[in-house]
Amino acid sequence: MSTPLKVVAVNGSAHQPSRTLVLIEALLAGLGQRLVLDSRIVDLSEIARPLGAALTRAELPAGVEAQVAAIESADLVIAAAPVYRGSFPGHFKHLFDLVGMTALADKPVLLAATGGSDRHALVLEHQLRPLFGFLQALTLPIGVYASTADFDGYEIGEGALAERIRLAVDRAAPLFAASARPLRRAA
Ligand SMILES: Cc1cc2nc3c(=O)[nH]c(=O)nc-3n(C[C@H](O)[C@H](O)[C@H](O)COP(=O)(O)O)c2cc1C
């Protein structure tokens, strides 16, 4: 019996619709083909306002506190954010400022980001990875960046982005062998 992998995906976009959310859903779908998942999305579009009003963890409303606690207890965090001014949005950082200082230590984190332009693809390496490095998380080697041109509106077709998502899933899935879906026998 596989043990479900608790995946908590954080969407750092406070907007709807959200390409970052579309990317998260594609990553979860890809991982879900390989692993038994117990997944949850923490969506800034739902919690950005109460989150922003809380200066400390103690000031968080119960519903948002539960989402922060879910991040802390995840087996795998997908940290996905849109690029704002060359980095992640401030409210995304504020969320992780309220996560316990050592709660992400040794926790696998899959990085993802979307931006208007390909020129900011290294936001994964120069902004997101150092943040999670500070938190002592185990950031997975391959993250996924997507620019607006990679999407067909708010959909992901069968182009280069789908290939990058497959690669990230192929590299991530073997790390969670205890949650692997049983292989289907060929008829
Ligand atoms: C305030 C703001 C700043 C942005 N700054 C950048 C930027 O520096 N580089 C970039 O490539 N895109 C930038 N963008 C575009 C967004 O990153 C891009 O549209 C992203 O996919 C939006 O994600 P969402 O659809 O999940 O909200 C910016 C957008 C906003 C609203």
Annotation keywords:
187 residues, alpha/beta, Rossmann fold, six-stranded parallel β-sheet, 6 strands, globular, binds flavin mononucleotide
SSE order and pairing:
Layout: E1 5-11, H1 19-34, E2 37-43, H2 44-53, H3 62-73, E3 76-82, H4 90-98, E4 108-115, H5 123-134, E5 138-139, E6 144-147, H6 160-172
Parallel strand pairs: 1-2, 1-3, 3-4, 4-5, 4-6
Helix pairs in contact: 1-6, 2-4
Flavin mononucleotide is lined by residues 13, 15, 18-20, 82-86, 114-117, 120, 148.
Structure description:
Belongs to the SsuE family. Residues 6-148 form the NADPH-dependent FMN reductase-like domain. This is FMN reductase. This protein is an alpha/beta fold and 187 residues long. The protein has one domain: Flavodoxin domain (Rossmann fold), CATH 3.40.50. It has helices at residues 19-34, 44-53, 62-73, 90-98, 123-134, 160-172, and strands at residues 5-11, 37-43, 76-82, 108-115, 138-139, 144-147. Strands 1, 2, 3, 4, 5 and 6 form a six-stranded parallel β-sheet that branches. The longest helix is centred in the N-terminal third of the chain and has 16 residues, at 19-34. It starts with a strand and ends in a 15-residue tail after the last helix. The structure holds flavin mononucleotide. Flavin mononucleotide binds at residues 13, 15, 18-20, 82-86, 114-117, 120, 148.
